[in-house]
Design goal:
Helices cover about 45% and strands about 10% of the residues. A six-stranded parallel sheet has the order 3-2-1-4-5-6, covered by helices on one side. The protein is built from nine helices and six strands, in the order βαααααβαβαβαββα.
Length: about 210
Amino acid sequence: MIEAVIFDLDGLLADTEKLHIEAYRQVFASFGLEIDERVYAEHWIRDGKGIGEYIAEHKLPLDPNDVRSRKTERYHHLVRTTAQPMPGAVELVEQLRGRKHLGLASSSYRRDVHCVLESLGLREAFSVIAAKEDAKRLKPAPDVFLFVAARLGVAPERCLVLEDAEKGIRAASAAGMKSVAVPNRFTRDNDFSAATCVVSSLTDITPTFLESLA
């Protein structure tokens, strides 16, 4: 029986990957540099790397902390003014509230996670919210999912993860959890072979569907 559902945030619950990209575009443009969606999708989403690795790999004469700070400021503005949930996200959360333990496991910084949840009005829906600071290793390592399961008091095998990216599905598998992959336009070419199943949208997921996976 599935007792807990653990959601990813960016690209799964919230349509915010495009906002991350736009924030980085604005920051890099201020330095006379460019970054495109393909690079962001590969480096940040698929590989799970950050700005420090990007600057080092491309030997850019930039301070990662400065870039990160500028990006955060722009990103929060975009979230507060334009953030939208992914199709079916709010409806699914409301359907599951009271039926399952709900947790959220993100690789984003805590300040970014809470900014998004507050903007979408979803903060109170989750009993446990985990961010980058809560895991020694980021996805595809299982740390953040195991952290959430432990805080919820639910065994990993009774948890189901909802994810949009390969690294998250791999992390769920490593944690011993079932998973449903919900690809978006940035992750459609990811390898989801480790997922329990793949659906096209959160609108395809219902409480009855989740029980069938048990």
